[in-house]
């Protein structure tokens, strides 16, 4: 039986113009046990200047590790979303993210299939994804890092599509990063879907969807970057936690919301349930 813990994706400080260090300090202050940082390839102005919470894969993974240890938070995973359908983008990026995760102590690297090329067929896209997953799994297996595939884009927006991607490569390093909000917005029952994937799940994005967003977007989109505060939307969190507790692995509920205030309300609500 799995243990359920509470973390937060650094999405919650995106609109607050916070640096990575300020973001994890804020998470610790709110009482989160885990954080899920974003990572990016190369260097860019906003995060270097301290206005954006993403962390460069060209930076020192031990600097990230020490920063988390200093404020007393642990890593649930790295948010490393990239287009699996575009191997020229995703192959080396994800391999580097896996090596980085192994050094900084993050057990999971999360991604989805991303926007597809405009000119490829569905069958071609799955061949391209298989190539990427095979290459990345070979790097991840020896390092004890999981690759968490998330329901978020055109092929993973339904259970059969997510399963097809997961089954492209037979590897113990490949798992599911389930997203409660994306699965709901794509028109499915997130509780039924979660029950279906719990044995393969390595991480969970705890994303609630407001009634207004549900009315406006459900069945029209494949996902959303962030939701409302957990407990203020349509997701049945008692059932989500119950299912996670019956999973074979320990699971971190990584809250994905849009503001610091929502993150504060989310942890207060989830702590009462967990």
What does this structure look like?
With 274 residues, the protein is α/β, with parallel strands linked by helices. It has a single domain (4-273), classed as TIM Barrel, CATH 3.20.20. It is built from eleven helices and eleven strands. It has helices at 20-30, 45-49, 61-71, 87-104, 122-141, 159-166, 180-185, 190-197, 211-217, 237-245, 260-273, and strands at residues 4-9, 34-36, 39-40, 55-56, 74-75, 78-83, 108-112, 146-149, 174-179, 201-206, 251-255. Strand 8, helix 6 and strand 9 form a beta-alpha-beta unit. The longest helix has 20 residues, at 122-141. 49% of the residues are buried. The model has no long low-confidence stretch (mean pLDDT 97).
Q: Percent range for helical residues? A: 40-55%
What's the CATH H-level superfamily name? Answer: Divalent-metal-dependent TIM barrel enzymes
Radius of gyration in whole Å, from Cα? 17 Å
CATH class: Alpha Beta
Q: Which strand order does the major sheet show?
A: 5-2-1-11-10-9-8-7-6
Number of helices: 11
* The CATH topology: TIM Barrel
Largest sheet: 9 strands, parallel
Q: What is the correct CATH architecture? A: Alpha-Beta Barrel
> What is the ordering of alpha helices and beta strands?
EHEEHEHEEHEHEHEHHEHHEH
How many structural domains are formed by the residues?
A: 1
Shape: globular
Give the overall pLDDT as a whole number. 97
Estimated structural class: alpha/beta
**Regions with little confidence, pLDDT below 50 for 5+ residues:** none
The tally of strands reads 11
Strand content: 15-25%
N-end to C-end Cα span: 14 Å
